[in-house]
UniProtKB/TrEMBL annotation:
RNA polymerase sigma-70 region domain location: 57-122, 160-208
GO biological-process terms attached to the record: DNA-templated transcription initiation
Family: Belongs to the sigma-70 factor family. ECF subfamily.
Keyword Transcription regulation: yes
Gene3D superfamilies in the record: 1.10.1740.10, Winged helix-like DNA-binding domain superfamily/Winged helix DNA-binding domain
Superkingdom: Bacteria
Protein name, UniProt field: ECF RNA polymerase sigma factor SigK
Sorted UniProt keywords: DNA-binding, Sigma factor, Transcription, Transcription regulation
């Protein structure tokens, strides 16, 4: 199984901005970065072909890094997450199902989830720091009731998000949690603008229904 294989990411730990510097015009590189080529590289990764992983990295790292950067808003953290994504992609390449979406969408879904997890981890750490500083006389008092209501509401929204499809949830989180415009969401997910808008609209309708809206 691909999940038991080990892949050394060291050769790929270089600034993402330099990944595609092969003295080839960007336009020509973009022309050959087809969905079929990405899918073929991912399928080859599942067989243990490390050269295919290098190809996959070259074809997709700019978009993976771009999405991670949009979520994290920190270049160093985005670089770290990008490297983590390709290790995970190598380990899980045999789980890719073409019938459920493109290889690039599969990769970007993993990227978004891991980047959001990193943000939530940082927020949890900040909350702990704030709690430890609660005895500071200079700290602003926090109403426990208000804090409890905010926590409950956040949990309700997180629970309701699970009722969305993967594509709807990803689009809604990018637009409303990460503050991306519809056009930026479309670019991050590599889908037409109309598709991005539809996913956000349908996701919000389903989210409202799950939260008990009319």
């Amino acid at each position: 199984m691909a999940s038991h294989r080990r892949w050394d990411a060291t050769p790929f730990r270089q600034p993402v901005s330099h990944v595609q510097d092969h003295n080839v015009p960007v336009q020509e590189v973009a022309a050959v970065e087809t969905a079929d080529a990405i899918a073929e590289a991912l399928r080859s990764c599942a067989t243990g072909d490390q050269s295919a992983m290098a190809t996959l990295y070259d074809l997709t790292s700019a978009k993976v890094y771009g999405l991670a950067l949009r979520v994290l808003r920190n270049p160093a953290h985005a670089e770290e997450v990008t490297q983590e994504i390709y290790v995970e992609a190598w380990q899980r390449s045999d789980t890719f199902q073409p019938g459920r979406g493109s290889a690039l969408s599969w990769l970007l879904t993993i990227t978004h989830r891991r980047a959001v997890d990193r943000v939530r981890s940082a927020e949890a750490s900040a909350r702990r720091d704030q709690a430890y500083g609660a005895d500071d006389p200079a700290a602003s008092p926090v109403d426990p009731a208000d804090q409890a209501v905010a926590t409950i509401e956040a949990e309700r929204v997180r629970g309701a998000l699970t009722s969305l499809t993967d594509t709807q949830r990803q689009a809604v989180e990018l637009a409303y949690y990460d503050g991306l415009t519809h056009r930026e969401v479309a670019h991050a997910l590599d889908v037409p603008l109309g598709t991005a808008k539809a996913r956000i609209r349908d996701g919000l309708i389903r989210l409202r229904s799950a939260l008990g809206g009319d």
